[in-house]
C-alpha cells in the first residue's frame, strides 16, 4: 500500500460558529437524514442523546464544517497530518487533499455527513482506491491520542548505548546458559518503564504537530494507526501492537507552500499516463507517454517516489526554485558530465535503508537486506569520492548537503563490521544469515564439532558394536537428528513381530539418545548466530538517522540529475523566476508533442496578472512591471481553424510554467522564459466522462469552470479550451462571454487566462469588443493551396481591426488544401474553416457546398431563404403579404396624436391589415 488515509469532518453553522461541538463528535443538521453504515455497540440511545446538539437554533441553513486528515507514506515511513481546517460547501479542500495524497485506502467516520462521504466515495471509484466507513468509536480524540503515544517513535528515546558497556557482567556469566531466548528476555528487561515511556511520548508529541488543539486531526491519526496495526497483524501474524509499526516521523502538511493542481488539470496536461498491463490477469500498470515518463530517469526507488511527489506538489518558494535551478545548471556543465555519469552509476546502489533497517529490527530481515546495507555503504563512499571531482561544487546547495550527509567514516565502519561478520557464501547456501569463522570462539567450537560429527558417530557406532551381542543384531547404524541427538538403529527381527514383542537389552530403550556431550548442536549454532547478528544490528542502528538522512539527500540528488539529463537530451533551457506575476515565453515548445512529430513549430506567449478592467501595469505598485508589460493582457483569446494547434499551444504554456515550478524545478522547453510564481493551475480542456458519473459532459465542464472561479487568485493560471461547446451555441457563447467578463471585472485580482473558442459571433461591440476589453486576441495561421500548388489568398479570413466586418466565406475549390502553419499571430480568425477541413478529410463535395451556403445565410441573418426553398408559389405569395403587413406595422408612429384616440387606433390597424373598419 502506498498511502493510507484517515479523514474526519465536523459541521458548523453558516456563520462559522461551532454548534454543540464536543471533541471527537460531529454534530448533524436536523434536516440531514443520516444513514446507518456500521453496527456499533456504542450507538445506544444514551450516547445519541449526549451527542445531539440543540438543533432548534440551526434551522434549514446551509452548513459548512472543519476537516482533519492524516495519511501514511510507507516509502518514507512517515505520517502526514493536516490540522483542523475550515472546509467550504463544495469540499474543495477535501478534493485537493485526496489528489495530493493519492491514497490506496480511504477511511472516514460513520458519523460524517452524507455529502462528505459521497465525495470520498466518488474519488475512490475514480482512482480505484478502497473506501471504508469505520465505526465512529475509532474516531475519538482520546483514543487517537493514546494510539499516537504508544508509537515507538515517541515513547522510546534514542540513547547512544555502548553495546559492550556490560561486558564485565557478560563475562562473569559466561558459564551460564546462553541462547537466543535468554538474550531476548534480557532485552525485554531493559525496555524501560511504561509510565516513563508515555510521559516521554506526551512531551515529544508537541514537537511534531499541534495536535492537541486539533481533535479531528488527532482522531484521524488514531484511526489510521489502528488500521495500520490491523493490516500488519493480518499480514504478519504479529500482535506487537502500535508500538511495532514502522513509523519514523510525523510531519504537518503545508498546503500553502505548494502549487494546487487538481486531477483534471494533471490529466488534461498529460502529466501522468498509466497504461494497463497487456495481460488481463495482471493489475500492474506502467507509465505511458507523459511528462513524468520523459523526465523520470531516477536510479533509485526513493528518487522515483520523491520525483512523483514533487510532480504532484510543485513548489511556490522562489528561493528554493532559484537554488535548485542553479544545481541543474551546474550538472549540465561540460566539465562535470563524466562525474555526473559516475554519480548516476553509484546511485543505483543506494537502497531504501530506513525500510531495510526496519525489517532487520523487526526480525524479518534476510541476507539480501544485509547485502543491501553493505552495498549502500560502499556506494555512499564512492559517491563521496566522486563529489570531490566536481568542478566548483562547494557553491551548490545539493553538493554541500550531500558532502555533509555522507559520513564516510561511519559508513565504512558499518560496512566493514557487516562484511567481517557475515559469511555470504554460507548464508546463500543455508538460506539464512551465517557468521564467518574467527568471529566467536564458542561458535567456532560448535561448528567444528558439528562438521566432524560423521567421524564422531562412526567411533560411537564402533564402540556400541562391541557391546551388542552378535546374535542380537548383525549390523547397526548411528543416525544424527538435529534438535534430538543421535539414534542407534538395528535391523528388525521376525520373532520380534510376534506377541512377545521386542526384547530390549539391559540399559537400552527404544527412544532417541540425548547425548550430553554432542547435544543439540544445530539449534545451538543457530541460536548463537542470532545473538551475534543482533549484536551487529545494535552497532548498525546507532547510525540509523545518519544513513536515513543520506538516503533522503541522495534521492534529491537523483531527481536533480534526472532533470539535468532530460534538459540535456531535449534541449531545455533555464527559466528566469521573478517576483512579478508574468509569463514571458520565447519560442516555447510542447514537451510531449515535440517527441512524436518530425518538426515542431515553437511559439511565444505573454501574460501578466492583474490586468482586468480599469487596471494597467503602470499603476500596479505591487508588480513593479516595466514598460514592456504595459501592453500585455491577463486574458489571451486564441482562435483559428479546426485542428490547427490551439489546444497544444494552451497546454504548452501551462506545462512550461508547471515544469519551472517542479520541486526541485526543471528546465523548460523554450529558448528563454521569464516566469512568476503561479499558485494554482485550473483547466477546462478535456472532459472525463464515465458511466459511473451521473453528470452529463456539459455538467462536468461546468464543474471544472465553477471550481476554477471559486478558487483562483491573481497568481493563478486558467485554461479554457472551447468552453460552452456542449450545449446550444447561443447558451454556450453566453456562458463563455460571462466567464471571461467576470474574470476581467476582478480588475487587479484578475488571474492569467488562456482561452480558445470557435464562438466567432461574440467578437462584437456589445459582447467581447476587441477595441474596449483588455484582451489579447491571437490566431493560428493557415494557408490554402490550389490543386496546382499555388498559394490562395486567405488574408480576407483574418482581420485584427474589424473582426465582425468583411466576413467573406469562400467555398473550397476542387483540389484545394489547407496547410496548418502552427504559428501564432496577432488578431482574430473570423472562421474555423470547417468546410475546408471537411473537404480535406473526405466529406462529399455537395455536403461541403451545402454547409458553406447555410453558414453564409446564418452569418447574414437570412434564414428566410432557407424556408423559401420548400415553399409553393401560393405559400411564397402569402409570406410576401405577411412581410408587407409587418413592415407597415413597424413603420407606424405610435407617438402621434392619432394614437391618443381609440377610434384612430382601430382605423390605423384596419389600414395596416387592409380591411374595412365598417365590416367590424
UniProtKB/TrEMBL annotation:
Keyword Nucleotide-binding assigned: yes
Protein name: DNA mismatch repair proteins mutS family domain-containing protein
Keywords: ATP-binding, DNA-binding, Nucleotide-binding
SMART domains: MUTSac (SM00534), MUTSd (SM00533)
DNA mismatch repair proteins mutS family domain segment(s): 716-732
Annotated segments matching region Disordered: 1-57
GO CC annotation: nucleus
Bias-annotated ranges (Basic residues): 1-11
Xref: Pfam families: MutS_III, MutS_V
Any one Gene Ontology molecular-function term assigned to this protein's record: ATP-dependent DNA damage sensor activity
Highest taxon of source: Eukaryota
GO biological process, one term: mismatch repair
Family indicated by similarity: Belongs to the DNA mismatch repair MutS family.
Source species of the chain: Paxillus rubicundulus Ve08.2h10
Record-linked PROSITE patterns: DNA_MISMATCH_REPAIR_2
Nucleotide-binding among keywords: yes
Family matches, as InterPro entries: DNA_mismatch_repair_MutS/MSH, DNA_mismatch_repair_MutS_C, DNA_mismatch_repair_MutS_core, DNA_mismatch_repair_MutS_sf, MutS, P-loop_NTPase
Amino acid at each position: 500500500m502506498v498511502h493510507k488515509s484517515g479523514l474526519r469532518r465536523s459541521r458548523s453553522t453558516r456563520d462559522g460558529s461551532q454548534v454543540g461541538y464536543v471533541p471527537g463528535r460531529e454534530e448533524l443538521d436536523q434536516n440531514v437524514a443520516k444513514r446507518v453504515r456500521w453496527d456499533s455497540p456504542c450507538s445506544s440511545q444514551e450516547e445519541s442523546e449526549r451527542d445531539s446538539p440543540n438543533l432548534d437554533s440551526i434551522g434549514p441553513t446551509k452548513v459548512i464544517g472543519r476537516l482533519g486528515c492524516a495519511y501514511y507514506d510507507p516509502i518514507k515511513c512517515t505520517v502526514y497530518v493536516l490540522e483542523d481546517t475550515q472546509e467550504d460547501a463544495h469540499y474543495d479542500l477535501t478534493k485537493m487533499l485526496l489528489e495530493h495524497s493519492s491514497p490506496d485506502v480511504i477511511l472516514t467516520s460513520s458519523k460524517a455527513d452524507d455529502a462528505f462521504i459521497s465525495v470520498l466515495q466518488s474519488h475512490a471509484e475514480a482512482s480505484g482506491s478502497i473506501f471504508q466507513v469505520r465505526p465512529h468509536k475509532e474516531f475519538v480524540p482520546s483514543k487517537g491520542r493514546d494510539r499516537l503515544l504508544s508509537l515507538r517513535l515517541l515513547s522510546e528515546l534514542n540513547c547512544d548505548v555502548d553495546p559492550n558497556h556490560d561486558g564485565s557482567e557478560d563475562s562473569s556469566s559466561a558459564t551460564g546458559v546462553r541462547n537466543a531466548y535468554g538474550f531476548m528476555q534480557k532485552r525485554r528487561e531493559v525496555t524501560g518503564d511504561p509510565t516513563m515511556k508515555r510521559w516521554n511520548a506526551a512531551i515529544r508529541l508537541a514537537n511534531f504537530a499541534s495536535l492537541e488543539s486539533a481533535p479531528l486531526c488527532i482522531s484521524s491519526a488514531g484511526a489510521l494507526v489502528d488500521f495500520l496495526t490491523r493490516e500488519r497483524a493480518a499480514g504478519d501474524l504479529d500482535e506487537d501492537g502500535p508500538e511495532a509499526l514502522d513509523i519514523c516521523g510525523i510531519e504537518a502538511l503545508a498546503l500553502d507552500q505548494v502549487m494546487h493542481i487538481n486531477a483534471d488539470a494533471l490529466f488534461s496536461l498529460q502529466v501522468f499516463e498509466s497504461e494497463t498491463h497487456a495481460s488481463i490477469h495482471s493489475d500492474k500498470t506502467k507509465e505511458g507517454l507523459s511528462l513524468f515518463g520523459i523526465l523520470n530517469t531516477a536510479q533509485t526507488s526513493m528518487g522515483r517516489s520523491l520525483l512523483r511527489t514533487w510532480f504532484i506538489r510543485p513548489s511556490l518558494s522562489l528561493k528554493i526554485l532559484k537554488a535548485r535551478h542553479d544545481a541543474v545548471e551546474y550538472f549540465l556543465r561540460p566539465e562535470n558530465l563524466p562525474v555526473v555519469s559516475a554519480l548516476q552509476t553509484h546511485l543505483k546502489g543506494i537502497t531504501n535503508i530506513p525500510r531495510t533497517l526496519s525489517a532487520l529490527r523487526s526480525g524479518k530481515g534476510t541476507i539480501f537486506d544485509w547485502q543491501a546495507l553493505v552495498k549502500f555503504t560502499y556506494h555512499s563512499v564512492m559517491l563521496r569520492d566522486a563529489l570531490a571531482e566536481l568542478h566548483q561544487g562547494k557553491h551548490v546547495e545539493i553538493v554541500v548537503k550531500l558532502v555533509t550527509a555522507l559520513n564516510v567514516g561511519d559508513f565504512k565502519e558499518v560496512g566493514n563490521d557487516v562484511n567481517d561478520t557475515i559469511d555470504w557464501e554460507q548464508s546463500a547456501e543455508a538460506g539464512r544469515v551465517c557468521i564467518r569463522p574467527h568471529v566467536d570462539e564458542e561458535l567456532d567450537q560448535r561448528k567444528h564439532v558439528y562438521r566432524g560429527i560423521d567421524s564422531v558417530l562412526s567411533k560411537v557406532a564402533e564402540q556400541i558394536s562391541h557391546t551388542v551381542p552378535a546374535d542380537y543384531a548383525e549390523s547397526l547404524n548411528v543416525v544424527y537428528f538435529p534438535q534430538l541427538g543421535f539414534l542407534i538403529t538395528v535391523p528388525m527381527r521376525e520373532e520380534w513381530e510376534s506377541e512377545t514383542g521386542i526384547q530390549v537389552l539391559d540399559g537400552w530403550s527404544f527412544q532417541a539418545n540425548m547425548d550430553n556431550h554432542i547435544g543439540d548442536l544445530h539449534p545451538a549454532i543457530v541460536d548463537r548466530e542470532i545473538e551475534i547478528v543482533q549484536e551487529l544490528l545494535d552497532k548498525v542502528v546507532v547510525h540509523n538517522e545518519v544513513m536515513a538522512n543520506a538516503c533522503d539527500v541522495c534521492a534529491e540528488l537523483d531527481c536533480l540529475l534526472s532533470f539535468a539529463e532530460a534538459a540535456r537530451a531535449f534541449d531545455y533551457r533555464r527559466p528566469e523566476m521573478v517576483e512579478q506575476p508574468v509569463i514571458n515565453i520565447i519560442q516555447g515548445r510542447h514537451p510531449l508533442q515535440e517527441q512524436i512529430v518530425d518538426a515542431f513549430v515553437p511559439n511565444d506567449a505573454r501574460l501578466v496578472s492583474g490586468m482586468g478592467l480599469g487596471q494597467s501595469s503602470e499603476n500596479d505598485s505591487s508588480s513593479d512591471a516595466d514598460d514592456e508589460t504595459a501592453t500585455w493582457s491577463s486574458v489571451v483569446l486564441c482562435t483559428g481553424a479546426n485542428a490547427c494547434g490551439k489546444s497544444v499551444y494552451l497546454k504548452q504554456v501551462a506545462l512550461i510554467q508547471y515544469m519551472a515550478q517542479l520541486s526541485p524545478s526543471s528546465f523548460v522547453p523554450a529558448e528563454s522564459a521569464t516566469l512568476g510564481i503561479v499558485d494554482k493551475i485550473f483547466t477546462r480542456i478535456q472532459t472525463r466522462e464515465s458511466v459511473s458519473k451521473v453528470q452529463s459532459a456539459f455538467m462536468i465542464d461546468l464543474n471544472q469552470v465553477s471550481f476554477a472561479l471559486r478558487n483562483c487568485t491573481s497568481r493563478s493560471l486558467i485554461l479554457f479550451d472551447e468552453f460552452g461547446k456542449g450545449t446550444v451555441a447561443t447558451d454556450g457563447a453566453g456562458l463563455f462571454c460571462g466567464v471571461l467578463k467576470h474574470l476581467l471585472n476582478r480588475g487587479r485580482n484578475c488571474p492569467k487566462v488562456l482561452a480558445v473558442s470557435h464562438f466567432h459571433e461574440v467578437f462584437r461591440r456589445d459582447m467581447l469588443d476587441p477595441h474596449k476589453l483588455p484582451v489579447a486576441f491571437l490566431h493560428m495561421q493557415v494557408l490554402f493551396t490550389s490543386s496546382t500548388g499555388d498559394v490562395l489568398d486567405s488574408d480576407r479570413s483574418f482581420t485584427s481591426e474589424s473582426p465582425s466586418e468583411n466576413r467573406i466565406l469562400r467555398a473550397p475549390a476542387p483540389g484545394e488544401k489547407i496547410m496548418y502553419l502552427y504559428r501564432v499571430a496577432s488578431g482574430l480568425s473570423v472562421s474555423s474553416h470547417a468546410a475546408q477541413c471537411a473537404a480535406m478529410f473526405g466529406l462529399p463535395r455537395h455536403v461541403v457546398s451545402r454547409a458553406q451556403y447555410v453558414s453564409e445565410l446564418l452569418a447574414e441573418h437570412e434564414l428566410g431563404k432557407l424556408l423559401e426553398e420548400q415553399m409553393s408559389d401560393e405559400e411564397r405569395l402569402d409570406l410576401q403579404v405577411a412581410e408587407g403587413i409587418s413592415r407597415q406595422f413597424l413603420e407606424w408612429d405610435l407617438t402621434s396624436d392619432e394614437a391618443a384616440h381609440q377610434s384612430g387606433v382601430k382605423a390605423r390597424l384596419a389600414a395596416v391589415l387592409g380591411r374595412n373598419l365598417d365590416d367590424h
